[in-house]
Design brief:
InterPro entries: Adenylosuccin_syn_GTP-bd, Adenylosuccin_syn_Lys_AS, Adenylosuccinate_synth_dom1, Adenylosuccinate_synth_dom2, Adenylosuccinate_synth_dom3, Adenylosuccinate_synthetase, P-loop_NTPase. This protein is α/β, with parallel strands linked by helices. It contains 15 helices and 20 strands. The structure holds 2-acetamido-2-deoxy-beta-D-glucopyranose (2 copies). One 2-acetamido-2-deoxy-beta-D-glucopyranose binds next to helix 11.
Length: about 450
């Protein structure tokens, strides 16, 4: 059309700026993970047409409770519970196939139905092999021996798989469902590469290849050109598209507390690179913030509570990892950290989760500034040595000392709890849209 001089009107109509049609709604973790994103996603997924994952692998974990059945999701978008929605695993995700099918199987036994008809997988997504997982374990062991501390990875092979991706010898879904002999050759090369690097790594190449060939057949009908899939979804008839972030801002490979981070982009940019979506199609971005702070594994944690209050949060909040069962460290809400996550993500609104866990505390502190050697820091430091040395300035707010679990509206919340929420909004200059006071779907109070 552009080259045809006669159809001038069509050329000029192209030059009239068009409003992007459908936009994606994004849900992201705003702390160190485990904020309860699953619950917010589940809420929004109920009337979504498409629910997408754009990064990470089965190292993340979401629990969704529906009719008192607890579903655990690691790789499957939790929107897969919605029978009217299509679930999509984008190119930015790394997929461990045995893990994917095992997860589906476990949830099938709990009542999930027909997931294979509702799931699409990008042909550009990279594959996590069993040896990536073995290497993850060996690397953690080496770090423990050499530095006396490990990264606390989930040993799901996510880091090594993203390393292969960046090293340009990784294998993708399109390779597995393509010419299998070409795939076999590349697979052997990659396996041998890792075998040379790690002497005590045992890879049963033939076994794993056999297993993969079986998976290839089950996978084939689910595989799609992810870029084209998203393009059609964004430019076709009106659709509600949801992107569920995995991990969280402070675990982002670039913006997180490096090196104690995950290997993907858990901030908003990952939505574009992990799905092939233009930035102009990114709509609302919701940050999920737990009413206090938790962190798994090692690394600096300025507002950590190493006393009974920390233990109380840990036990009341049932702070154990969904993927690993590890006990999470607990501390006061750190708003310096959340504000930093907001600088990167530009949250439209916030979902404040697990407020009820604070129900028994007579007073609640909130971290509002960092100082090093008596000097205030303007923002969240990049250097972990600095983060270890900060002293936190707190605002002390009165607790409410009564149960909020049965509350279903903002007005019913005790005034002290309302003030706690308003304090967070004022500090961040972002509205709180939901407040979580329990595990069920109904316990997410909607403010507006
Ligand atoms: C994450 O973002 C960086 C840019 O900092 C990019 O180089 C990298 O490929 C991205 N990683 C993934 C896993 O998408
Ligand atoms: C734990 O330490 C914090 C320090 O920030 C304090 O506010 C809290 O009262 C302490 N809890 C107990 C039970 O001593």
């Amino acid at each position: 059309i552009l080259l045809n001089r006669k159809s001038g009107s069509q050329v000029s109509s192209l030059r009239v700026p068009k409003e992007p049609q459908n936009k994606v709604t994004v849900v992201l973790g705003a702390q160190w993970g485990d904020e309860g994103k699953g619950k917010v996603v589940d809420l929004l997924a109920m009337d979504a047409d498409i629910v997408c994952r754009c990064q990470g692998g089965n190292n993340a974990g979401h629990t969704v409770v529906v009719d008192s059945v607890e579903y655990d999701f690691h790789l499957l978008p939790s929107g897969v519970l919605n029978k009217k929605a299509t679930s999509f695993i984008g190119n930015g995700v790394v997929i461990h196939l045995p893990g994917l099918f095992e997860e589906a199987e476990k949830n099938l036994q709990k009542g999930l139905q027909g997931w294979e008809e509702r799931l699409k997988i990008s042909d550009r997504a990279h594959i996590v092999f069993n040896f990536h997982q073995a290497v993850d374990g060996i690397q953690e062991q080496q770090r423990q021996q050499q530095e006396g501390k490990n990264l606390g990875t989930t040993k799901k092979g996510i880091g090594p798989a993203y390393s292969s991706k960046a090293a340009r010898n990784g294998l993708r879904v399109c390779d597995l469902v393509g010419d299998i002999t070409v795939f076999e050759d590349k697979f052997r090369l990659l396996a041998e590469h890792f075998q040379r690097m790690y002497q005590n790594l045992n890879i049963n190449i033939e076994n794993e290849l056999e297993q993969l060939k079986g998976f290839a057949e089950r996978l084939r009908p689910l595989v799609t050109d992810g870029v084209y899939f998203m393009h059609k979804a964004l430019n076709g008839p009106s659709k509600k598209i949801l992107v569920e972030g995995a991990n969280a801002a402070l675990l982002d490979i670039d913006f997180g507390t490096y090196p104690f981070v995950t290997s993907s982009n858990c901030t908003v940019g990952g939505v574009c690179t992990g799905l092939g979506v233009p930035p102009s199609h990114v709509g609302r971005v919701y940050g999920v913030v737990k009413a206090y702070t938790t962190r798994v594994g090692v690394g600096a944690f300025p507002t950590e509570l190493n006393n009974e209050t920390g233990d109380l949060l840990q036990s009341r909040g049932r702070e154990f990892g969904v993927t690993t069962g590890r006990r999470r460290r607990c501390g006061w809400l750190d708003l310096i950290l959340v504000r930093y996550a907001h600088m990167v993500n530009g949250f439209s609104a916030i979902a404040l989760t697990k407020l009820d866990i604070l129900d028994t505390l007579p007073e609640i502190k909130v971290g509002v500034a960092y100082k090093v050697n008596g000097k205030p820091l303007p923002s969240f430091p990049a250097n972990m040595d600095v983060l270890t040395r900060v002293t936190v300035e707190y605002e002390t707010l009165p607790g409410w000392c009564c149960s909020t679990e049965a509350v279903r509206s903002f007005e019913e919340l005790p005034p002290q709890a309302q003030s706690y929420i308003r304090f967070i909004e004022d500090f961040l200059q972002v509205p709180v849209k939901w407040v979580g006071v329990g595990k069920s779907r109904e316990s997410m109070i909607k403010l507006f």
